[in-house]
Design a protein that fits this description.
The protein is an alpha+beta fold and about 110 residues long. The chain has one domain: IHF-like DNA-binding proteins (HU Protein, Chain A, Irregular). It is built from four helices and five strands, in the order ααβββββαα. The strands form two sheets. Strands 1-2-5 form a three-stranded antiparallel beta sheet. A hairpin with a 6-residue loop joins strand 3 and strand 4. It is extended.
Length: about 110
């Protein structure tokens, strides 16, 4: 079961020896800084755990294509440019990931 925001703050407070109120203020400030940086299309690295990056996907023109199931020729619609935020796990997050067997047991797959 994933941690709720309160459980997350409690866990950080316990490990850091700080109060939950202090941790919540720090998490709120972290959120504000990250959102401001993303709004300015800046790359944000959160410790050695994750990196957030803004990606711009260019617009595409309408183009001919083929339906793979029927072979019928079709026109693929144009798509406008879009912006996406990509989260990339860094080395410590990758190292902390469970084994495939452990993950399958936990996720019930």
């Amino acid at each position: 079961m994933p941690l709720t925001q309160t459980q997350f703050a409690d866990e950080i407070a316990e490990r850091a020896g700080a109060s939950r109120a202090d941790v919540k203020r720090v998490l709120t400030a972290l959120e504000e800084v990250v959102l401001d940086q993303i709004a300015d299309a800046e790359k944000v690295k959160i410790g050695t755990v994750v990196q957030l990056e803004v990606r711009v996907r260019p617009a595409t023109k309408e183009r001919p294509g083929r339906n793979p199931a029927t072979g019928e020729e079709i026109m693929i619609a144009a798509k406008p440019a879009s912006v996406a935020v990509k989260a990339r796990p860094l080395a410590k997050a990758k190292a902390a990931a469970p084994s495939v067997d452990k993950a399958k047991r936990k996720l019930g797959k």
